[in-house]
Amino acid sequence: MKHRIVYQGIPGAFSHIAALGHFGADNTFSGLPTFHEIFARIENRQADYGVIPLENSLAGSIGENYDLLYKNDVSVIDEYYQPIRHHVLISKSPHSDKTIGIQNIQRIYSHPKALEQCIKFFKNHDYIAPQAYNDTAEAAEYVASEQRTDIAAIASKEAAELYGLDILVRDVQDNINNWTRFFIITSVHPEPDILVHDTVYKCSIIFTLPHIPGSLYDIIGIFANAHLNLSKIESRPIHGKAFEYVFYIDVEFHSHDYALIHKLIRLCSEMTNEIKVLGYYPKAHIKNNF
Amino acid sequence: MKHRIVYQGIPGAFSHIAALGHFGADNTFSGLPTFHEIFARIENRQADYGVIPLENSLAGSIGENYDLLYKNDVSVIDEYYQPIRHHVLISKSPHSDKTIGIQNIQRIYSHPKALEQCIKFFKNHDYIAPQAYNDTAEAAEYVASEQRTDIAAIASKEAAELYGLDILVRDVQDNINNWTRFFIITSVHPEPDILVHDTVYKCSIIFTLPHIPGSLYDIIGIFANAHLNLSKIESRPIHGKAFEYVFYIDVEFHSHDYALIHKLIRLCSEMTNEIKVLGYYPKAHIKNNF
Asked: Which of residues 198-217 of A touch B (CB under 8 A)?
């Protein structure tokens, strides 16, 4: 059975690549203009799964999605690490005997964050003007539509394939340790009775705390005393409440500790103002696709 | 004496506005293309102070600057909260009797993040095409240079003043709780002997931990047991080391506890792999400029 999967952006965007990587191509994928619409489609059951970026290793956390996870009734059922590789893409030459070189390119379109991640390339080719575009994949689509020999896009190899572009220069990003962590969200709340045997899981939890000194320490202590590792911790301001915070943590646990983690969350709920378990999911690894 | 102050972007960018707000106009301000160059100018003593964004209340943390603070030898001497307000800016009408209305506008230029923060405005004016630009202030400069009646920029009122534009629609951002937190950095390491009397300070600390369960708990406990509040906590991946983290915390303390905070940091340094005190600075407040 095909799943209906939604992501933010157009085909060839890194969210689309992550969605394809996680679910495989034999599903129905829809790109939406905003993260908000992903959550709306999931809550309305107009889509089965959403793929949302949480954090980029270079750019930092994507605050909007943390806030949407806090406010909306969805479950996290998986995580996925997508390596981010930027390539210079050009129109296929109409005359196969004529080769376009980097010296022909005068302007390169991409998302400003992608352009920022390729500073060394632009320093080494200072005759090329970087030009902002809404999205890396949209930049690729634009370059494909123009059929010119003096412009290029910086985008993924998947965008090159989708829009029929050639890769002129590979891997122009300054830092190869560039990845984005995605969550797979759904409206169903599949609280599994038993987890996959002998597997490391993560549990993602959002909570707010009373204004009592040491309350964060006490929460972290619940997991530390059980010898469980926190693989992520982040405080985010609560909108409209200056200097009040919502905390976001990922706890790693072994599948045989599933009963334990439930007990610890019950302990947490006695010490937090609000608490929301986003989900339990197997710990993913960064696949190096170089 | 005038200070040499560097920020990322061009005049009218929010970093420039924050720099002006913190230091006052009677200084020398230089916009630089990248955050990396701000740190280089500070370390080389080619500038006295740098103004860098750390976190936006909606978009999230700016990972690159956390990483640059971790890697470079600078001190944080102040924080500054800049409210972010987006306005639709148009060219001044050459004929003062002819008024441009929003119905005349066909295209609006701005940074993609700013465009994303004005979704309701674009839904209510769906005949207007949003168009990405490198920066809000650069979009304002571009609109000013074009002198057309059918294009506009979304940028700050300071950008309107600098580039001679009119404000057509004020406050088109979806969420008014939109602010960016900036750090003021310098190469001097002014470890003050005495802090300003009777003032709440923050101390920002970056550290990495040994792979021992509960090590984060122990660090947080040092401050919790002294009844000091953490106003910020964040874990960031260390580049090139998959699943190793650097932790970033802000500790609030009263100026009369300055000796205590030194003692606590000495305790921390015995339990961390690496530790770096970024600086001590008075706690700032979000100024509501509506």
From this structure: 213-214, 216-217
CB within 8 Å: B60 and A58: no
Q: Quick one: pLDDT at residue A283? A: 94
Q: Which residues of A are less than 8 Å from B220 in CB distance?
A: 216-217, 220
Beta B60-61 vs B49-56: how paired, if at all? antiparallel
CB A82 within 8 A of CB A104: no
- Mark whether B70 and B184 lie in a shared domain: yes
Residue A71, token pair as written in the block: 């406010």
Chain A: closest CA distance from residue B208 (Å): 13
* B287 and B268 within one domain: yes
Count of domains for chain A: 3
Which A residues 72-101 touch B at CB under 8 Å? none
Q: What is the pLDDT, as a whole number, of residue A289?
A: 55
Instruction: Identify whether residues B120 and B154 lie together within a single domain.
Output: yes
Query: What's residue B243's pLDDT?
Result: 63
Both A80 and A183 in one domain: the answer is yes
Is A188 an interface residue toward B (CB < 8 Å)? no
Range of the domain at B285: 191-290
Are A265 and A204 part of one and the same domain?
A: yes
Nearest to A64 among B58, B131, B227 (CB): B58
Q: Are A156 and A79 in a shared domain?
A: no
- A232-268 burial: b if 16+ Cβ within 10 Å, else e: bbbbbbbbeeeeebbbbbbbbbebebbeebeebbebb
Which of B161, B190, B219 is at the close of a domain? B190
Question: Could you report the per-residue pLDDT of B150-191, keeping only the tens digit for each?
Answer: 999 999 999 999 999 999 999 999 988 899 999 999 997 667
**A129 part of contact set with chain B, CB < 8 Å:** no
Based on the fold, state whether residues B157 and B224 are members of the same structural domain. no
- Marked catalytic residue, from B14, B121, B180, B207: B180
Distance between CA atoms of residues B201 and A255, nearest Å: 43
The structure tokens listed for A54 are: 């949480």
Mark whether B247 is an active-site residue.
no
Alpha-carbon distance A286 to nearest alpha carbon in chain B (angstroms)? 8
